[in-house]
Amino acid sequence: MEPAIDQAFAAALYAHDDTGLDTGASLLAAAPAADDVVHARGEEFVRRAWARGWQPADVVRIVRRELDESGAELAAALIMAETARYPHLPPRWADQLAALPAPAPRNRPDRFSYACALIGLYRLLLGLPVIEPVGPAPGTAADRLHQPPAHGESRMLTRIRALLAKAEGTGFPEEAEALTTKAQELMARHSIDEALIAARSHSDETPGACRIGVDAPYETAKAILLDVVASANRCQAVWNSEAGFTTVVGFEPDLEAVELLFTSLLVQGTAAMTKAEAGQRAGGRKRTKTFRQSFLMAYAQRLGSRLASDTARVTAAADAGDGTGDGTEHAAPGSLLPVLAARDVAVTDTAERMFPKTTTTRVRGATDIDGWTHGTAAADRARMGRSGPGIDR
Question: Is 246 helix (H, G, I), strand (E, B) or coil?
Answer without folding.
Answer: strand
